[in-house]
Amino acid sequence: MPSRPHADGELSLPLPAALLDALVDAIADRVAARFTPPNPGLVSPWMDFEAARAYLGFSRDTLYKLTAAGAIPHRKKAGGHSLRFHQAELDAWMEEAYPRVDSLPGAELRSAVFSLNQAENR
Fold first, then answer.
1. Is 58 exposed, middle or buried (0-12, 13-18, 19+ CB in 10 A)?
2. Among the four residues 4, 17, 46, 85, which has the most C-beta atoms within 10 Å?
3. Is the pLDDT of residue 50 over 70?
């Protein structure tokens, strides 16, 4: 297969469809391997201090104060210094510490939205 020059000076080389498909598959496999975690099914619910801080959206100072006061669920290895936080425990703590403020029952909420829509359409 001879190469053909383009008007802009670039060369093109026609490739058989099977070869092109094989190249695309090989490239896709390499990209997937680079961006896939080593054990995607084994994601741990345990977080260190920085991961918990990022997960909760707290500053270092805020999370430190909460752990020092024993106000947030966390674990510390006996004789150790590093802390661990469990995602489910943090989620439960957030639900309790930060209650929902949009606590209208479903029927009342739908009625309120309907009333607002009606008022806007007048």
1. middle
2. 85
3. yes
